[in-house]
Amino acid sequence: MFDAILPRFNVSVTYIDGTLVENWKDAAKSNTALFYLESPNSWTYELQPLKEIAEFAREKNIITFIDNTYCTPVYQNVMDLGIDIAMQTATKYIGGHSDTLGGILCGSNALMKKNF
Ligand SMILES: *Cc1c(COP(=O)(O)O)cnc(C)c1O
């Protein structure tokens, strides 16, 4: 999606090591619109400092978006950490039986109405 689809819409992506808030600060540009997070991540289970990243992003008017699939909302309430939008795949842990296909986006009414 980041390399093949978004460039068609004139959206560029910068990849960073997301485990340090300094890396997010260094990568933010004047036109950065969104931070895409995943913590813990699927492959190495590294954690990102979500609260600190969200605080910085809010100062810069950057939307924070997290794939919270691994922890699910049961084990990690990212809204409490200041994240703007949370994505869950319902296909795995929420469905639980490999017999569903679904996804969930959560955010404030205002943000969701404006962007989706
Ligand atoms: C599997 C997975 C997805 C995709 O979910 P599907 O519902 O199977 O498309 C997204 N994010 C993470 C972290 C996943 O493990």
Helix and strand content put the structural class at alpha/beta
So what's the CATH class?
Alpha Beta
- Termini Cα gap: 17 Å
General form: globular
Instruction: Work out the helicity level.
Output: 25-40%
Order of helices and strands: HEHEHEHEH
Q: What is the CATH architecture term?
A: 3-Layer(aba) Sandwich
Strand content: 15-25%
Kindly report the average pLDDT value.
94
What does this structure look like?
With 116 residues, the protein is α/β, with parallel strands linked by helices. The protein has one domain: Aspartate Aminotransferase, domain 2 (3-Layer(aba) Sandwich), CATH 3.40.640. The chain has five helices and four strands. It has helices at residues 21-27, 50-59, 72-75, 90-94, 109-115; strands at 34-38, 63-67, 85-89, 103-106. A four-stranded mixed sheet has the order 1-2-3-4. α2 links the parallel β1 (34-38) and β2. It is globular and about 45 Å long. The two termini are 17 Å apart. The model has no long low-confidence stretch (mean pLDDT 94). Pyridoxal-5'-phosphate binds next to α4.
